[in-house]
Amino acid sequence: MQDQLDIIRRGAIEILVEQELIEKLQLKRPLRIKAGFDPTAPDLHLGHTVLLNKMRQFQDIGHEVIFLIGDFTGMIGDPTGKNATRPPLTTEEVQANARTYTEQVFKILDPVATKVVFNSQWMSELDAADLVKIAAKHTVARMLERDDFDKRYTAGQPIAIHEFLYPLIQGYDSVALESDVELGGTDQKFNLLVGRQLQQAYGQAPQIVLTMPLLEGLSGGDKMSKSLNNYIGIAEPANDMFGKLMSISDELMWRYFELVSFRSLSDIEDLREQTRAGRNPKEVKIELALEIVSRFHDTASADRACHAFNQRFAQGQLPDEIAEVTVVVGTQGLPLANVLKAAGLTASTSESHRMVGQGAVRIDGAKVENGRQLLDGGQAFVIQVGKRRIARVLLSAS
Amino acid sequence: MQDQLDIIRRGAIEILVEQELIEKLQLKRPLRIKAGFDPTAPDLHLGHTVLLNKMRQFQDIGHEVIFLIGDFTGMIGDPTGKNATRPPLTTEEVQANARTYTEQVFKILDPVATKVVFNSQWMSELDAADLVKIAAKHTVARMLERDDFDKRYTAGQPIAIHEFLYPLIQGYDSVALESDVELGGTDQKFNLLVGRQLQQAYGQAPQIVLTMPLLEGLSGGDKMSKSLNNYIGIAEPANDMFGKLMSISDELMWRYFELVSFRSLSDIEDLREQTRAGRNPKEVKIELALEIVSRFHDTASADRACHAFNQRFAQGQLPDEIAEVTVVVGTQGLPLANVLKAAGLTASTSESHRMVGQGAVRIDGAKVENGRQLLDGGQAFVIQVGKRRIARVLLSAS
Question: Rounded to two decimals, what is the model's pTM?
C-alpha cells in the first residue's frame, strides 16, 4: 500500500482527496483510472507524456486505465461559428486521429491494460432533455468560479453559454464511466472537480482527482507547447530528440527526471548525490537522453544518436561547464547574427557575419552558413564561435 | 393600416420595434403571431385573457395566431429534483391539459384561425449536440442581465445552469415557428427578446415583441393570480363572476374596460364622458359585467346573474356611493367579526358577533350566520351592518 501511494504521489501536484484514495486502494480491486484527451491534436510531445507516465504507473500497479477521447465536442466543432480553424470533425477523422494517438501512446501505455473509449458513445445517445437534466446539477455561480471564466466575466469578455456545458459533459463522462480516479494537468483541476461533484449528484462515489504539473519547455519557464515551439515531439527522429534533451539546463534536467523518466525516485536521488559529489551533469543528462530516446525509438538508435551528438561536438573540445545565456528573440524570431551579439559571443552583428563567413560558427556542433537565418523562441542550442567562445543559448519568445 | 396599428397598440406596454411591425404589416400577408403557455396551469382566469384578447384582436384583423404549449420543459419536470410539486408530465397529461386549455381559450379565440402547437414536436427531435449549438448563440453576461437572475446572482442565491437553457429553448421555438410577432406579459419581455436575438442568429428576420400589462386582481394593486385569491376564473358560475366584477372599484373598472372588454376605445371614452357628466358608475360597471359574463357563459345567463345581483341588494336600498375600505387580513385570513371592526362597521368584535347573531350582517346582499368565518385576502365585498352602515371592503393579504 505504501509503495502504491509513493508511486501515485510521484510528481503529482494535488490528490483530492488522498484519504478517499487510500480507502479505494484498500478495496483491493483494479481502480478505473480516467484521463481525457482532445481528438483534434494527435501530435504528442513530451509534455503530454507526463500524464501518460502517470497512467502507466497506475497500470504497473494493477489498475485499469481508460484513455478517453472527447470526440463528442470535437464533432460539434466551434458552435459559435467564429473559429474557422475548428471545423466539426467527422467520425472518420476522429477514428483516424485516434489511431495516430494510440500508435503514439502505446509507446508508454500497456495496450493490454488500456481501454480506449470515445465519449460520443454515450453522449450521442443523449437528447436535449437529458442535457437539460445534467445542466440542472450545477450552478452558474460555481461555474463562474473557474479561473478563466471569472477573468473573462470580470473583464467584460463574452462567455457563450455552451462553454458552461462543456465541463458538465466532461464531468458526465465520469458518471458514464464510473471512474474511481481522474488524472489531468493542473489547468484541468476545475473540470475534474465537476466530475467529482456530478458523480455525487448521480449517487456515485466521487472520483479522486489527481493533478499533474505542466512540463516546462526546452528553455524552461513556459509550459511545453507546439505553439511556443519549445517541445520535443515523441515521433521526432532520434538525433533531434537527443540533441534537444542535451540542450536543456542542468536545473531543468532534474524536473525532466522526475516527470519524464521512469527511473525510481531513489535512483534519481543517487544521481543528484553523484553530481553534488562532483560528477559532470552532462554525463547524467546523457543518461536521461538515452532513456527517453530508447523509449520512443530503441536502444540501438539512442546509442547512435548519442555517438552522433558527441561526434558533432568533437569529443573533448567542449568544456564541461558551459555558460548559459538567455536571448529574447520576440515572437518574430531574431537573425542568428543578432543572437550572437546579444549572447555576447560577438561584439557586433558585422563581426557575427564575418565569423559565419569564415565558417567559425557552429550550432549544436554543426557549421552554419547564413548569419541572416531567423532563430525562433522556445529553443536552446550550444553555440560556438571559433574555439574559445561558447555558450548554451536559450531563445525566449518573450 | 392605421386602424390595424390602433388595435394592436391597445393596452400594450411596449412594441419592439414598432417600425419593424409597420414594415411587416405592409407585406399584406397574414403574420404569424406566437404566444406561449405553460402546460401545467390549465385553469385560466381573467388575467390570462388580457393576452388572449390581444391574440383575438390579431385574428380579427386577419393574422395567424399560434397557441404554443411549452410541454417540452413540462415533460422534464423539475430537473433539480428539489420541487416535488413539479413532477414530470406524461404525454397523456399534457394532452389532457391542452384540451382543458383549448376548451377555455376558444371562448375568446377563433378556433379556425388558431394553430395549437406543442414545442415538444421539434424540441424532442433535438439531441444534446443540437442544444449545445443553440446555447452557443447567447452569452452568460446577457443572460445574467435578466432581472430575476441578476437579483439572485447578486444575492448569492443559486441559479442552476439549466435555467439558462430555458429562455433559449423558448427563443428557439420562435426560430422553429418563424414567428413574426411574439406576445407576452411584461414579465416575459427578456425571454421574448431572446427569441428575437436567436432568430437573427439563425438568419431569420427578428420577431416583433409586444408586451401586455399584468391585469390587477379584484382588490387592485397586486396582479391577478390564483395564489393571491384575487381572481375571476373564466369557468366560474355566472353569478360569482358577476358579483366579483361588481365588487371592483370604479377606478379599476376603467382598467378592466381597456384590457378585458372588447368594446372599442371610442365606446369606452363615451362611457367615461357619461360618468363625468353624472352617470352612476355602478350602471357602467353593470355593462362591463354583462359583457364579460356573456362571453364566458351567454347573454341569458348574464341577464339572470344581473337580476340576482340586484335582488340580493334589494334594489334601491344601496346608496349610489359606497365608501371603500381596505382591510389587511394577512396570509391566514381574518374572522368576519374582526373584519367588521377593522372596517369601522362595528365598534368592537363583540358588537360584530351580536350583529351577526341578530341577522343584521350581509355580505354581497346575503345574510351571514357565523362571525368566526375566516375571510381570505384578495377578495372584495359589499358588507352591510344594519340598514345604514355599509362599505365596499377590499381584503388585502399584505
Answer: 0.74
